[in-house]
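Weekly structure sync, notes
Attendees: PL (lead), two postdocs, one rotation student
Agenda item 3: pending single-chain targets
PL asked that the sequence for the first pending target be pasted directly into the notes so everyone works from the same version. It is reproduced below exactly as submitted, 101 residues in total.
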Amino acid sequence: MCLGIPGQIVEITNPEAMMAMAEVSGVRREVNVACIADGPLQGLIGEWALIHVGFAMSRIDEAEAAATLEALRDLGEAQEALEQMAEGDRALVGLRKETQV
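Predicted structure, written out during the meeting:
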């Protein structure tokens, strides 16, 4: 499964190579915009796109970007909770082994 992270195109860095700077959750990185370019590259500034391994794969609107970012934050929190639960389970197993000896 491929996961795209919403990012906003903030500047065109190399028009010949179709490269732009995208801001993804406060972090800026250069991405290739060939997949979403359908006119002058300057028209991409301010647009939202799903970014995957350095490529802007598809355009999305701001509402979809916000909803996706929120879902990703929730998944991160869920993953953290699952890891804490697993750590607690490991601690209980270790405690049981100690009491059985």
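Discussion points:
- The first strand starts at residue 5 and ends at 14.
- The first helix runs from residue 62 to 100.
Action: rotation student to compare against the earlier draft before next sync.
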